[in-house]
Amino acid sequence: MSSTAGELDAEALYQDLLTRMRADWAQLPQPAYLVGVASGGVEVARRLARDLGASAAAGVISSAMHRDDFAQRGLAGAAMQNDLPFDVEGAHVVLVDDVLHTGRTVRAVINELFDYGRPASVMLAVLVDRGQRQLPVCANWSACSVELPADQSLQLKRDEAEELQFVMEAAR
After folding, report:
1. Residues 17 and 141: beta-carbon distance below 8 Å
2. Distance of CA 66 to the CA centre of its chain
3. What is the C-alpha separation between 13 and 157, in angstroms, rounded?
4. Preceding omega of 62 cis (within 30 degrees of 0)
5. Cβ(144)–Cβ(160) below 8 Å
6. Is the dihedral of CA 33, 1, 14, 67 positive or negative?
7. To 10 degrees, what angle do helices 40-52 and 10-25 make?
8. Which of 23, 66, 80, 119 makes a 20 to 30 Å CA pair with 110?
9. Which helix or strand (DSSP H or E) is residue 169 part of?
């Protein structure tokens, strides 16, 4: 599905992603685990783990230590610590994030993941693919594609009712 930023219903996108993944999940080689990319992908990964009946809780992984802009950002965004409640070695890992943009965060997260062992495979699921890739990264599952101005970013948040919503912000 292709969309504009004003039409993004994060809850509906989650349901679409879940539907797309459900058929494939049972066919994935085992062991297969979900890992949320801090911070936007964590809530999505936790919900997917529950809704897909995953054999383990979703893990959490941060890109902070392997970012190519570490000199400018430092440990910004490292508030969520890595938590991988399973052995990465030989596992099939599905990284989950809210938004795929340049591919740089995914590259950093893959580097971090390999610090824990060598997975058999790494796949990617995202709610929104906004294109403008700088690296050859592609999502295996995506709920929608959207075009945004370069000076805008999408932030996944939860509202008062604990439902997911996207908020448009100025890019950092």
Report:
1. yes
2. 16
3. 14
4. no
5. no
6. positive
7. 50
8. 23
9. strand 164-170
